[in-house]
Amino acid sequence: MLKSKAFWRGVPVGIRVIAAVVGAVGSLSGAGLLGHKAGRNAAESEFSSLVADLRKQVDLLQAFMKDLASIRGPASPLEGKLWRLPGSQIEEELALASNVTDKPVADLVFRILGVGVAHAETTSDADKLKEVRDSMRTRYPTLRRYKADATVGEDRRGYVSEIPKQLLSPEASEKMSDEKYAKALRKTIEEENADRRQLYEIRAGTIRTTVEKAASIYAEGWRASANPGEWIEVLVDEKKNRWEWQKRK
Prior knowledge:
By secondary structure, the chain is an alpha+beta fold. It is globular and about 60 Å long. It has two domains: about 5-115; about 125-245, no CATH class. The longest helix is centred in the N-terminal third of the chain and has 36 residues, at about 35-70. Strand 1 and strand 2 (about 160) form a beta hairpin. Helix 2 runs antiparallel to helix 3 (about 35-70), helix 2 (about 15-30) crosses helix 5 (about 105-115) and helix 6 packs antiparallel against helix 8. It has helices spanning about 5-10, 15-30, 35-70, 90-100, 105-115, 125-150, 170-175, 180-205, 210-225, and strands at about 150-155, 160, 230-235, 240-245. The chain has a four-stranded mixed beta sheet with strand order 2-1-3-4.
């Protein structure tokens, strides 16, 4: 049986993807639906839309890790913590599925998910991707400085935001009182978010999902990659969908 939503909140998305598929298919196995050809066909049909979405989440995770490594360099705060570098994470997670003892379940999981789903990028997409990555890489040291100043953070939507005045420390408030500093910060936020929007559009087009879905997966990745002490928006009440700004611990 899968754990509660509260349990899974701290688990990487990729692991949750595998758990969701194994759990869903496993429930069908328990009901005896996978023991017959008709049952297997019905199960695959019933879960096709769910699994298609899960596969896209895995693909977006891979894309995020590649983009993160390109923008920040391979030695990111994620390495050795919640994530792995591109490629190895998915292999590790698929290995979890191979440990399922019920062979019909394991076979169905692998058939549904596949091992690495390639999405072709057009020359135009590749050029745009390089351009936006280069732009974000150039800006990254400046953005990192603002985050270290605790005046900018990673929000719930996959974008960077100015921290509300009431949350600023005396030191951060003093910085924001400098008109030149505040103007430069807001310009950086505007340019960064424009690049991120373009990045999400490219990835959504390549993976054939929505910009909102791409942004939501990347948002989780940006927050997970934040350094301790940096501001991130955190879901504190799932039922009410209530978020609040907190410093990453």
